[in-house]
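Q: Could you predict the 3D structure of HTH cro/C1-type domain-containing protein?
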Amino acid sequence: MIGCRIRIYRKKKGLTVKQLAKIIGISQGSLSDIENEKTKPSAKTITSLVRNTDINPDWLLTGEGEMFIRPAKVEFKHMTTEEILKQFPQAIPAHPVPVINIQVPAGFPEIPLEKEQIIDYLYLPDIPKGSLAIKVRGASMEPTIEDGDYVVFLPINKLGEPIKNGDIIIVRNEWNELILKRYRQKEGKAYLTSDNPKYPTIEPNENYKIIGKIIRRVKEERF
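A: Sure. Here are the predicted structure tokens for HTH cro/C1-type domain-containing protein:
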């Protein structure tokens, strides 16, 4: 397993969990979870390992070959995440999910996004085609979703099912910004609530539009 091999490599190099986590840019807890096979490393985490250490990606992903990279294979250190995915598609079953700016066109999602509105990509397995993501700003949905988390959502025109009471949704507000709220319905009327009790309930008017439903929360350090 990849997590086990990362632990073997770390110990062979005489590094602590804290030291290796700092080298590859994730938290100590995240690396510990990966090494103990509680979570799988993301494509970006694996790319960071390849770029910032002398681990051999062939050995890391398949268990074959030598643990340490040979000078002749130093080009691995310059591989992009996309190149890693193409070279090891079975080891990292993921595809890119566009991270979009929270400021969107008034007609979104019916109006396609311009390239300039895509600010990054996440590489995640088992995500429905057409999914998008935003980076959360603010504490209105804490503790369920925290500031700095990413959330992946399926646009309403691709959802294939109605929004249900209690779903966490993406809403376009009257300023054409995407906000994260929980959908509530009472006596035939819709409300937008926050999981953080410090934030007020919104009674949406015609300027608010449901854009999509949250299907996954991802911690930033997982990429």
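Q: Anything worth pointing out?
A: Helices lie at 2-12, 17-24, 28-35, 43-52, 57-62, 81-87, 156-159.
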